[in-house]
Amino acid sequence: MYRPVKMTKYLLFKLNNELYGIENSILQNTQHYEYVITLIDAPNYMHGAIKTEGTLVPVIDLRVILGSEETQVNSDSHILIVKVTISGSEILIGIAVDALDEMVDVCRDKITARESGSPACIKGVIDITGGKATLLHINKILSVAKKNKVLDAVEQIERIIN
Questions:
Q1: With contact defined as beta carbons under 8 Å apart, do 150 and 39 qualify?
Q2: Pairing of strands 78-86, 27-32
Q3: Which of 77, 114, 129, 157 is the Cys-Cys partner for 73 at CB 3.0 to 4.6 Å?
Q4: Sorting pLDDT into bands at 50, 70 and 90, what band is 5?
Q5: What does pTM read for this prediction?
Q6: Domains assigned to the chain
Q7: Is residue 58 a contact partner of residue 41, using CB atoms and an 8 Å limit?
């Protein structure tokens, strides 16, 4: 019996010369990294905030979250604007990445499950032309403590604009 193949679109991007991907369904927008507003007492994984479509959005550094050094912003750097759920509320977060790569269609059965012991934010790995890409669960990227800091930043941003 024929079963249609379920494909999901993923945006691939680079961090530390490695490819990562997030589901397109949570992606709201991408933009070049520029005009980031510094937030007072922000943790090292938070660059500040950007204004996009009239909304101030906190920007986190995915490199730092994943345990690497801070992103060195250059002409290839981008911010992914994604919708995440924190404490039952949907909010927009900007994610600083080194560079955009491409949008790909991925069949669910082509995703290799994450290795045991790897972080929960890793959904799995896919083979692509020229290598592999690690797929991420963006809602699992931030620990509870970091989610609270992001919420604090959102409140600080709201105070700035009100």
A1: no
A2: antiparallel
A3: 77
A4: low
A5: 0.84
A6: 7-161 (2.40.50.180)
A7: no
Question: Tokens 């959904």 label which residue?
Answer: 123
Q: Cite the beta strand spans of 5-146 per DSSP E.
A: 7-15, 18-23, 27-32, 46-52, 55-61, 78-86, 89-97, 99-107, 112-113, 122-128, 131-136
Percent composition of the chain: helix, strand, coil (DSSP 3-state, to 5): 20, 50, 35
Q: Predicted confidence band at 123 (pLDDT cuts at 50, 70, 90)?
A: confident
Task: For 75-100, give the secondary structure using H, E and C.
Answer: CCCEEEEEEEEECCEEEEEEEEECEE
Read off the amino acid at residue 150: V
Taking the C-alpha atoms of residue 70 and residue 66, their distance in angstroms, rounded to an integer, is 10
Q: Which amino acid, 70?
A: E
The residue behind tokens 């404490």 is: 87
